[in-house]
Write a structure and sequence with these properties.
Elements (H helix, E strand, L loop, with lengths): L1 H12 L4 H4 L4 H13 L3 H37 L3 H11 L2 H23 L5 H4 L2 H37 L6 H38 L5
Helix pairs in contact: 4-5, 4-6, 4-9, 5-8, 6-8, 8-9
């Protein structure tokens, strides 16, 4: 009966002394106390911050690409030359500068979290199903970033420059030439954006289901 009383008391209050419940519960009491003391350590705080950066950054990165591919670009294309005016305002708000920063923060925080989770990229962990899923997702995100930086960003930047020149065109021939070049760069941007989006979707999916893959 005494043991049952102590068990119930420990479950309700999680604060049991060795004198009241006997030596049997000493280990549990010290374990609970040590767990509580670890919840506010700097490492745990850093872990929370890095997780927030990784999750929020990933949502922003992938969500922005989804919006661009499915809504923004088709809408601009349907507007014809007037779409260039919208594109100028879009880029002037810092889209081409902000996305790479968000992407880098997302990848760096993800690598740090994987390093923590795998105890320094331990081969046993990295070779497990969980490790393979996380590392593959990270690799796809890095590839998506490279495609964006090497193909999409330069093409989008060129569209920005050309769009600003269209209103200043001195002749119809020059204007048509600028629009033709804008069209070529827009096609490159769209293809690259779709590739980036697909890679990010796969990366997010892998990380979301990694713990459930057997």
């Amino acid at each position: 009966m005494e043991n049952n009383f102590c068990d119930n008391f420990r479950l309700k209050r999680a604060h049991v002394s060795e004198r009241s419940c006997g030596p049997r519960h000493t280990t549990d009491f010290h374990r609970l106390r040590s767990i509580g003391s670890r919840t506010a350590t700097p490492m745990n705080a850093l872990l929370i911050v890095m997780r927030l950066i990784h999750i929020i950054g990933g949502v922003y990165w992938a969500g922005t690409m989804f919006f661009f591919v499915t809504f923004l670009e088709p809408s601009l294309r349907s507007m014809g030359p007037d779409g260039g005016k919208v594109m100028i305002r879009f880029f002037e708000r810092g889209y081409l500068k902000l996305i790479p920063i968000i992407a880098v923060l997302t990848m760096l925080s993800g690598l740090w979290l994987l390093w923590q989770q795998s105890a320094g990229f331990d081969p046993a962990y990295m070779g497990s199903t969980l490790g393979i899923a996380f590392s593959t997702g990270g690799l796809l995100a890095i590839i998506a970033f490279l495609v964006g930086m090497v193909v999409m960003r330069p093409a989008a930047g060129r569209i920005w420059e050309l769009s600003k020149q269209v209103p200043q065109a001195t002749s119809e021939e020059v204007r048509n030439s600028l629009l033709a070049e804008i069209g070529k760069n827009r096609a490159r941007t769209v293809i690259a954006a779709r590739i980036v989006f697909v890679l990010l979707v796969i990366a997010v999916a892998l990380m979301a289901i990694a713990r459930y893959i057997r």
